[in-house]
Amino acid sequence: MMKKYRLHLLALVVALQTAALVGMVAVKHRTLITGTPILLKTEPVDPRSLFRGDYVVLNYAIGSLDYAALDGDNAFERHDAVFVVLRQGEHYWEPVSVHHEMPAPEPESVVIRGEVQYSGVWIGGENRDGINVRYGIESYFVPEGEGREIELPRNEGKVAILVAVDGGAAAIKAVLIDGVVRYEEKLF
Amino acid sequence: MWDRAFVSRLRKELPEWLEKGWVAPAGETAILDHAEARLAQGLNVIPMALAVIGALTLGAGIILFFAANWSDMSKVAKLAVLFGAMWGAYAIAARGLSGAARASRATGHAMLLLGVILFGANIQLIAQIYHIDAHYPNGVLMWALGALALVWLVPSQPVAVAGIALATLWSGMEILDFGREIHWPFLAVWGLFAAAALYRTWKWAGCAAIVALGIWCFMILVDWPYAQRGAELWLLQAFVLLGAALHLAGVAMQDVPRLTALSTVVRRTTLVGALFAAHFFIYVGMYGLPWYSWDLNNFDTEGWARVAEAGPGMIAFIVVFALAALALAIDRYRRVAAARSKRDMAGMLLAVLAAAAMLANPLMPGRYADTVLMYVALNGIVFAILIWMIVAGYRSGERFQVYSAFVAYGAGLIAVYFMEFFTLMSRSLFVMGGGAVLIAGVYLLERQRRTAGAAQAGGA
After folding, report:
1. Alpha carbon separation from A176 to A153, A167, B209, B284 (Å, rounded)
2. Mean pLDDT rounded to a whole number for chain B
3. DSSP assignment, residue A86?
4. What is the Cα–Cα distance from B245 to B231, expressed in whole angstroms?
5. Which residues, other chains included, contact B231 with Cβ-Cβ below 8 Å and sequence gap of 6+?
6. Would you state the pLDDT for residue B300?
7. Which residue of chain A comes nearest to B153, CA vs CA?
8. What is the ipTM of this complex?
9. Are B195 and B209 in contact (CB under 8 A)?
């Protein structure tokens, strides 16, 4: 028979697990509410996750960074944290510089935090000295069977993602197809 | 052992034993009552097993339901259902575990397991709802830690087994998907689960912990980076030593009354693990690992250069487990020496020889002749160990040890047949020599057994 103190301990574990889950929700909510919205160019593909169902993998243009085209640091290794300064371009936000540490905020720019996946990038048909970076916004989960709808316009390059960025953290706000919002993230 | 066949056999045999005066009339009833009681106790595992299967099935269904990402539910409704289901499972678990009946406790543990599954489902589905994709193994780690808290604060063996599986999945993602090479943090989480299994003397969780460690070692080997090729032998040696150290720990556990029940599980699982690693180690070329692991000509400098190449982490790994194996071996040697068992002494000698050969191997100068010599020596030692295992297992009634040795021997024979390290003629002589030694050994063993039997009959 379970002793009374064990029931208290079970309640403690449940409280800890709940707090961890609420923390996950709270961190994303904060980014979505307070973050600066930026539009990013992407190329989606459509796989499936074991636990989370269908999703679209988003290959961002800012995922491949060419040292020669950017200011800042240029000696990164796999799994290093990387801070990328982005500025508004003609249509999309584009990388300006890369850093090991969080740079001081500048007007008209945002800083997004990522993790180096590997060194060396393939840009414009040639191998360049640079890094491939993940920002934690590379998956967009969709209802079963709808992944293909986002993937199809890939060849015309008309899929864009509206992302909220706050203190380096990023969260997806909306998926745009041909400039029209197809999926929008509501807070609740 | 406590199965129906055993009880039926007892029923058949006992009247004869009674007739011969080996068992007193009161003893016959007592033995049968005891056997029946143990049989009934064994059958009580079924409700627990069914409840656990039910929890796993229900949990899988819930995960699939939310994985479908049903858009007709709002985020708030989804979160309410997710949190409500988890709290509900834990509430039923608390009620079940508070009951005195065995069935009630089985339901309690099953609901605890369901609660942990739902905790993980919540992590994955909150990640789905908010499109969180930041280093996904961390989600599985968080899930495993949730199970770990439950294992220590509200003991539950099914949750421990699930938590060990999750910790292995987490480490597998880090190694295979993110190229972590040797993912050391796994050992910390694994250690906390293994300590709980040891403390609570949980057989299933103990077995799961050792199997998980074996899978972890295998994943490291499979995903070993090409840049560090040549250090595989170090890895395999470390894994053989790890298996041997844990096996000796299992042997030592036999002498601790509290841990005796867990000892069998530890000894058997580590024996299989050590034999598996030893097989890979001896027949390394069979499994896609490069020959230059053995052909030290690739490293024309002294052996210590290989030690430096293996890296400090690997060296620490080998030294820690070699020392653990040595300490346990010395402890065992003292006990064995006190009991004056020649059989155990021979086993210890072979184990020490194998460990010494393995540790000396990377330090050998890089000549072809040395490589062949070491290869033949290690093959011979492993062959002798397998023969010893069969003889010692046969004498002590440890059937698992005998079967394991036969399987390892068979696997080795197949490997030798397909190996390209030697010519067909060399392999033929090697295999024929092994077979002849084995037949001679069986003959000597049988003669010894008959002599002992005749002496016993003469004495009686």
Report:
1. 11, 24, 47, 53
2. 78
3. E
4. 21
5. B224, B306, B309, B310, B311, B314
6. 45
7. A9
8. 0.77
9. no
Residues from chain A contacting residue B166 (CB–CB below 8 Å):
none
Half-sphere exposure of B252 (CA within 13 A, CB side): 17
Contacts of B423 (CB under 8 A, 6+ apart): none
State pLDDT tens for residues A79-129: 889 999 999 988 899 999 999 999 988 888 999 999 998 887 777 777 778
Q: What gap in Å lies between CA B237 and CA A150, rounded to an integer?
A: 50
Do the chains contact at B83 and A21, CB–CB below 8 Å?
yes
Q: Which residues, 6+ apart, have CB-to-CB distance to A52 below 8 Å? A: A141, B67, B69, B124, B125, B127, B128
pLDDT of B268 above 80: yes
| Burial class of residue B41, CB neighbours in 10 A (0-12, 13-18, 19+) | exposed
B69/A144 touch (CB, cutoff 8 Å), yes or no: yes
A7 touching chain B per CB within 8 A: yes
Query: Is B128–A53 a contact, with Cβ atoms under 8 angstroms apart?
Result: yes
Residue A12: which of B75, B124, B153 has the nearest Cβ? B153
Q: Any chain B CB within 8 A of the CB of A26? A: no
The distance between the two most distant Cα atoms of chain A, rounded to a whole number of Å, is 69
Cα–Cα distance between B136 and B28 in angstroms, integer? 61
- Asked if A171 contacts A35 with a C-beta cutoff of 8 angstroms, the reply is yes
Task: Find the helix packing angle between B232-253 and B203-222, rounded to 10°.
Answer: 170
Residue B303's pLDDT is 47
What is the C-alpha separation between B121 and B118, in angstroms, rounded?
A: 5
Tokens at residue A127, please? Answer: 């191998």
pLDDT at B376 over 80: no
Q: Is A142 on the interface with B (CB under 8 A)?
A: yes
Work out the minimum CA distance from A124 to partner chain B, whole angstroms.
26
- What amino acid occupies position B65? F
Interatomic CA distance for residues B293 and B233, integer angstroms: 6
Amino acid type, A47: P
How crowded is residue B244: how many other Cβ atoms within 10 Å of its Cβ? 26
Q: Taking 70 as the threshold, does the pLDDT of residue B196 lie above it?
A: yes
pLDDT band (50, 70, 90) for residue B328: low
Strand partners, A116: A133
Burial of residue B153 (number of CB atoms within 10 Å: 0-12, 13-18, 19+): middle
pLDDT band per the 50, 70, 90 thresholds, residue B55? confident
